[in-house]
User: What shape does this take?
Amino acid sequence: MAIEMKVPAVGESITEVTVATWNKKEGDHVKLDEVLCELESDKATFELPAEAEGVLHIVAKEGDVLPIGAVICTIEAGGTTASVKVADAAPAAAVAAPAPAPAPAPAAGPTSVLEVKVPAVGESITEVTVSVWNKKTGDSVSLDEVLCELESDKATFELPAESAGVLEIVAESGTVVPIGGILARITVGGSVAAAAPAPAAAPSAPAAPASSGDATYAAGHPSPAAAKILDEKGISAASVVGSGVGGRITKEDAVSAVKPASAPAPAASAPAAPAAPAGGTRREKMSSLRKTVARRLVAVKNETAMLTTFNEVDMKPVMDLRGKYKDKFKEKHGVGLGFMSFFTKAVCVALKEYPSVNAKIDGDEIVFHDYCDISIAVSAPKGLVVPVIRSAENLSLAGIESEVVRLAGKARENKLSLEEMSGGTFTITNGGVFGSMLSTPIINAPQVAILGMHNIVERPVVVDGQIVIRPIMYLALSYDHRIIDGRESVSFLVRLKQLLEDPARLLLDI
Assistant: This one.
């Protein structure tokens, strides 16, 4: 009896899916709940498990677009594959001339294949790049042993083995894989192919004594992650002293390595040919993280109706308040009183009044957030990262400053977790710390707005009919015009200006 497998309903607004990858072939015997294929919609990738045990007959091929309810395949319950007939040929093979038989291999236990897939690593992350594999195909791996490093546009993280077994790599280094995509397979209970008995070799000269430790851990040999870092820095492994097992160069050794200064060339004793021009070019391979960031930024520019509006803020009231209380503030709370806490607090007030600035687009719907998870752009060694201050509207100025210090410190040490960088509703970026006067920041998708702070410069302004010198900062708000109108964006910046030029409003909530 054949059972029809159909495209399930996968969401209220999804009407069709694409068959991405078949994990089984025509005629394969499949088990109940075994993953048959992966289906893709415009929102996510998901797996299709078998509804019964039997023989698979594929109806829709990879790349086919199917409506909800269409037949993908059929399963002939109780069927068997034709491949079992191969066993009939075994007696015929036994008639061969007698020959010395190798010692029988120990009987292997039952084996199963575990698919290693890209885990869900954040609300807005849809794909990752395989940075470097720490193991090779055919290697035996242990439970929780790190298999490879994966990079998203926000962070680099390690992928541990979910079981012990023999590794088969599917996605090589540099491959971009969607969330849920297959990275490798682990044969659980299997043995490494190299363990099969080999024919006896002719007598030869005695082998050299084995060195202590594994050959892959020889002195001066970098780990895969270390080799990648040294290659990006243009540093030869021969110039780095390893601190790992047997003198192996670790990732930490590579991070701290400095390119040695080149020795001066000896003076020529004879007339030499004319020297090449002093100017030149240098090429460096773009890192996977940088390529992913570039791809996402271009996508944001192409997929949103991004527009930027500007305003200026007289920072004298905030600076006067900081100057008066900064010593007592630090003495009581243990952190300095910076500008970021004032801006974050003011942003939370303005977001409550203009909720569309604190929203996101999901298909044909607008999702409004009743909380303010503020993303703070921080410059880290590997690039820009955006950790999140959770429920910032409920924090005091001291609480915000403590979170900024904590997250910035973890960013500089590359210790931010994916949870700490996911789920923000609005972003603040401060180009002023690098001397930027004005910019048009790019939206941090799926958010719909980002505030750009800039440097503070003393400028002549008119106050009460008099020209005075005041410390002025330019503000920029980039926003998605699809759901934020010009009136709301301008009013949002004006509200920020009011709160920052009269910080007592933040305390009195007016």
About this structure: The longest helix spans residues 316-333. The CA atoms of residues 5 and 177 lie 26 Å apart. The domain at 306-508 is CATH 3.30.559.10 (Chloramphenicol Acetyltransferase). Residues 81-108, 192-217 have pLDDT under 50 and may be disordered.
